[in-house]
Specification:
alpha+beta; three-stranded antiparallel sheet
Length: about 90
């Protein structure tokens, strides 16, 4: 493979990865102007990178229990902010 073709292939591969990363971090799925409050029972805390997850069971107005999950910051960012995994225990 010629050096020019190798560089072009490397550039295309790099740009395709960058486009995926940009799409991954989009905010189209979120309404940043609306706060919500959830009350429920924590079932699990996945204190992981790149995004931590809080799992809980929320009882709706009709009495039906709905499993939900909340996406949070990365575990490393939460730890730097003083969070620990013990802060949100199941139950």
């Amino acid at each position: 493979m010629s050096r020019g073709l190798y560089l072009a292939a490397t550039a295309v591969a790099g740009l395709s990865v960058a486009a995926g990363a940009s799409a991954h971090h989009g905010i189209a799925n979120f309404d940043l102007n609306k706060d919500i409050e959830l009350t429920g029972v924590i079932t699990e805390l996945a204190f992981v990178n790149p995004h931590s997850w809080l799992y809980l069971n929320v009882t709706g107005p009709n009495g039906e229990v709905m499993p939900m999950r909340c996406e949070m910051r990365a575990a490393t960012v939460l730890k730097r902010s003083g969070w620990t995994q013990d802060m949100l225990a199941a139950g």
